## 1
Amino acid sequence: MSTTIPGDQTAARPTALAARATDLTKVYGAGETRVLALDGVTVGFGQAEFTAIMGPSGSGKSTLMHCLAGLDSISAGSARIGDTELTSLKEKQLTQLRRDKIGFIFQAFNLLPTLNALENITLPMDIAGRKPDQAWLDHVVETVGLSGRLKHRPTELSGGQQQRVAVARALAGKPAIVFADEPTGNLDSRAGAEVLGFLRNSVSEMGQTVVMVTHDPVAAGYADRVVFLADGRTVDEMYGPTAETVLDRMKAFDTKGRVS
Ligand SMILES: Nc1ncnc2c1ncn2[C@@H]1O[C@H](COP(=O)(O)OP(=O)(O)O)[C@@H](O)[C@H]1O
Ligand SMILES: [Mg+2]
């Protein structure tokens, strides 16, 4: 075990943590089908910080985000959003926390085809019976560059525009943290760059906290920090990443046979 805890060096980084996992373990199945998806992960995500999570397929990236977002139960350890321990919450409280504190962006845009862009963006708040903060909503819509597209349905939008709707939906409720699982995985590089630029702005200009899983060193280069996972453990981290330094680090893993 390493003695330093990635993302937990509070002396070096005085920011409060928006989310943290401590010795987080996640087991799927039992017996012969048992999978240890997370093997004691300890990691923190600072407020107003943009973190990329990288690692080979099956290393536990999605599981970590699902556990921290309260979308999946944990087997042992702790998962906290702010100061709230998720394991202490009853189902109803967990649903409320997910709704009020967490934004999630998936690789598949997951928009409702019968709703227009604006209706998709405000859907979570409509379901919750919350009135959107109109000034904030306008700001989000304008920043993602969707002002002229709000009446369009998803089928009338490009992939990049659809993902920007999904990003706006995640941000509209002012969540404490946004989790994005390969948000540019279905986009060409130009549309991907737009979405990444917007996520970057949401952190730099709006103080949003973003945690993003990606395979792509270029995407990771937009982040403030990269956390590397392998076999359900954090194995490395990097501050101030660039596409080049991330690529170099991935090559170093390759030679050790740790990253496919
Ligand atoms: N619902 C599930 N049931 C059983 N095993 C799962 C489930 N979800 C993920 N796993 C397994 O857990 C491990 C980590 O998966 P995942 O977090 O999806 O990896 P990544 O996102 O890094 O590709 C993999 O071995 C995967 O097969
Ligand atoms: Mg995944």
## 2
Amino acid sequence: MIKESKTALSDRIISRTIEFGACMAGIANVEELKESPSHTISGKQTEFSGVGTKEVDGKKKGKVIWPEHANSAVVIAVEHPRYAPDMDWWLKGLKGGTRGNAKLMSVFAKLAKWVEAETGIKCIKIPYHIEHGGVFMKDTAVLAGLGCIGKSNILVTPEYGPRVRLRVMLLDLDLPSTGMTDFDPCKDCEEYCRRACPQKAFEKQIYSKETFGQQKLPGRTGVYSRFTCNLEMEKNLDAGREVVIEGTDKTGKQVKFCRRCEMACPVGR
Ligand code: SF4
Ligand code: SF4
């Protein structure tokens, strides 16, 4: 039996995630999340196979399967600062894939233990990939008040700019969303992110409000092409090299994925 108000509980959950190592945290209500732009557009888009997507038999790409009893979503961020690029390097065989994701997973392992012991609320740990049971994390972060979707099509936070990585855990408790904010650094910006793209992934109008029936589109104005961005990701994969996995005698392929749009953004520098 939970004796405190939902706001007090939500505040306690958020402050615990920070103690456990996240740099930002918030909560999104699942019913609101289902209506967020990525969740509503995903079913209308052409199926996308690219770096980071997974083939799962019988599952449509990009379709979120909501677990039973998922009523709210805790979203956390860890910083991937410019001075620590290795946080972001993907290494096959490393737990979590990157150092950043390993940190995010460890925060949620501690949080789930605490929430269940302290409140009895069931925590539903979900994977990163949509095809394996994940949800759209950027939209979760926006609803939770962590930042806004920039013209780069990635989350931009006031404190760290776009140089963060996210992870989501679902709760069997109907908590209200802790966002959104009116933070918007892109309005008067010279679009350094878009200009930095080696593949010109923001050059063409791909989506329109009329065709997709919604106001909020990828890259804000419907110009972001994940197909074009994926060309760079494939190049990055091909350029990967075998390295020793720390703490083991094994090797794995290390890949440094493109972050030029992120690095060019002046917010949070
Ligand atoms: S570079 Fe400018 S337009 Fe691009 S995400 Fe950052 S603030 Fe927004
Ligand atoms: S990640 Fe690289 S290729 Fe993809 S949109 Fe950003 S700058 Fe362009």
